[in-house]
Amino acid sequence: MILSEKGWQTVFDRIKTWARVNSPWVIHFNSGSCNGCDIEILATITPRYDLERFGVKLQGSPRHADILLCTGPVTRQARERLLRVYEQMPEPKFVVAIGSCALSGGAFHDCYNTMGGVDQVIPVDAYIPGCPPRPEAIIDGVVKLLQKLQQGEKAEVGDQKPGELS
Amino acid sequence: MQTDTQRERFTIPIGPQHPALKEPGHFRFSVDGEIVTGATVRLGYAHRGLEKLAEKQNWVQNIYLFERVCGICSHTHATAYCLGVERLAGVIAPPRAQAIRTLVCELERIHSHLLWLGVSAHEAGFDTLFMYSWRDRETVMDLLEALTGNRVNYSVNVLGGVKVDVTEEIAQAIYKGLDFLEERTHHYLQVVSSDASFLQRARGVGVMTRQQAEVMGVVGPTARASGVTRDIRIEAPYAAYADFPPQVIVDERGDLEARFVVRLKELLESYRLVREILARLPEGELTVRMPRRIKSGETVSRVEAPRGELFYFLKSNGTDTPVRVHARTPTICNMTSVVRLAVGHQLADVPLILAGIDPCFSCNDR
Amino acid sequence: MKTTEEILTLAREIAGAWDWTTEVTQPEPNRLDVLLRNPADLVAIVTALRVKRLGYLAAITGLDLGAGELEALYHFCAGEVVITLRVRLNGRETAVASLSELIPSAEPFERELREMYGVNIIGLPSPDYLYLPDDWPAGVYPMRQDFDPQVLSRKT
User: Residue C113 CA to chain centroid, in angstroms?
Assistant: First the structure.
């Protein structure tokens, strides 16, 4: 059986989504948080919680990463760097804001040197609340994002050409 | 054509986002080949302006804020702050509260040192030790969660006492957890002083003599690994440390191996202290009444954080908000030593030298 | 190791050599405050403390007393004793000498004092910001009482 062009496209998209959902590489950026969330992110990749069973791998370079795990209220000095890390990531890319201060500024809401949350600077796909969120919550958030990718592939991901997705 | 280009010095920027550093700090190393010839540090990526915010919030709200100076040693920050405010108000927390504060301080030291062991092992390329030590760290995280309800920011302190009590059931769980951790710590102590590949990364690297340590003003385990016997828990006992004195662990060698050994031996000392506190926990109230307005005055509060001496300066003008809360954290003292020790070492050794002081950039920048 | 009384007596003796311009008080049993009316005395007193091996520099705290008056507090710790040298600075004209030649660990504290309060510190090697962001407006000092965060939003 010979597939039409559209048919081939669908097959490719399925393979792409399958690959993306089964082995998302994440990068972690601390934009000025108190370390509480960062040690919990680190705890999720260690044996007790083991995020790697979902194929998630913590990655050093933004150029290899699919998902940006961002903590902290985004300080003025870290703002430019967060933007640069985000721009270096290849499309399609997803952002997860972790912790109360990454969501809204949290305890540091009124500080003069914070922007008040990651979504003030870059678009965010998933929010994980908590101060800090438990490792289980972080796993839940990442898995929810993966589910969203899997279900929304046709509407959100599949029909777009690479580079169109913001 | 020029031939002297090989003498040219390169500058290598590291951070703020870097796989070796989990926290944002920016370093510039000038190198001659593989050897570092100069280093500068740029902090401020985590500078939020907490001390300014503290002037707008009242004394009680500030506990919540200062716990979030650092997520790793949050209880130590809150203890320093609360002890200072209580001294200003002329209130002394009940003995049981002081003992519970001390207990949580020591449990936090255990969690922090195990965390550090893993992170530094990771910097040394020894990921097996990283995973094992973090697996074992979950034991103390469970204990902290059982005791306080939180894994990271425990919120144990209130002005005039503590919120949580130690029940018999939790005490038994802590004894059991500590037995396991003690056995593991002896094993790690053996690993860091006998594993050949690890010793090549740590032995004789980043040596800081006692005199250098005193000149650079380093604090905490970093100083104690260079033979400086300085520990606020003994020099100026706070909370219940006068009743439960720890032993100072000192090592004269001053290299990275000594920093590993000192911190691991401090773990063993913390296990002993926690057991002793649990065995002789004073009976009584958990809190005393605190006034809402704090008497005007100034005070200094010093505690021994897992990373070294933590220094708080508090000033009140008699209202319900502070005039000034200044926190000087241990990392800022130790950071000078990294910039100096890195010179003359290979670039590949620098992450481990940095990890050796147990840096905390969010403490640093506030 | 010296006892608390010995340290306090020794510190009083040292400060006593400048008794024309200093004022020594003891606000708490373990604390000794030395108010320096003349900021130029700072280096000499710190040198005297170093010669007697009395304590280490634990922190430098800035205070805004209002009405353009600033105060820098140099805390020296020895055992449980905290010796605080208080230097009064009137407005932005007054400068204070850097201690970083004497005590290398003073540099980050002094840079913090300069950035947060705008104290002019003479002899501090690096002019760059250590804590504040690169694009911070010049002449704005966040820890001063008259700091207005609106300055920041107006710029961007």
Answer: 8
Q: For testing the chain C interface, which of B328, B363, B366 should be mutated: the one with the most C CBs within 10 Å? A: B328
Q: CA B63, CA A107: separation in Å to the nearest integer?
A: 11
Contact between C88 and C107 (Cβ < 8 Å): no
CA nearest to C108, candidates A22, B365, B286? B365
A55 Cα to chain B: minimum distance (Å): 17
* CA B353/CA B347 separation, integer angstroms: 10
Q: What ipTM was predicted for this assembly?
A: 0.85
Range of the domain at B52: 4-365
The predicted-structure confidence for B234-254, as pLDDT tens digits, reads as follows 888 888 888 888 888 888 888
Q: Is C144 on the interface with A (CB under 8 A)?
A: no
Tell me how far apart the alpha carbons of residues B83 and B113 are, in angstroms, rounded to a whole number. 24
Tell me: cis bond preceding A92? Omega within 30 of 0 counts: yes
3-state SS, one letter per residue, for A74-101 = CEHHHHHHHHHHHHHCCCCCEEEEECHH
Going along chain C from its start, the domains and CATH numbers come out as 4-155 (3.30.460.80)
- Output the CA torsion sign for A150, A155, A156, A162: positive
| Residues of chain C contacting A113 with CB distance shorter than 8 Å | 132-133, 142
In single-letter form, the type of residue at position B236 comes to A
Domains of chain A: 25-151 (3.40.50.12280)
**Contact with chain A for residue C147, Cβ under 8 A:** yes
List pLDDT tens digits, range B52-100: 888 888 899 899 889 888 888 889 999 999 999 998 888 888 999 999 9
* Cβ-defined contact of B45 to A77 (cutoff 8 Å): yes
Report the C-alpha gap between C98 and C94 in whole angstroms: 13
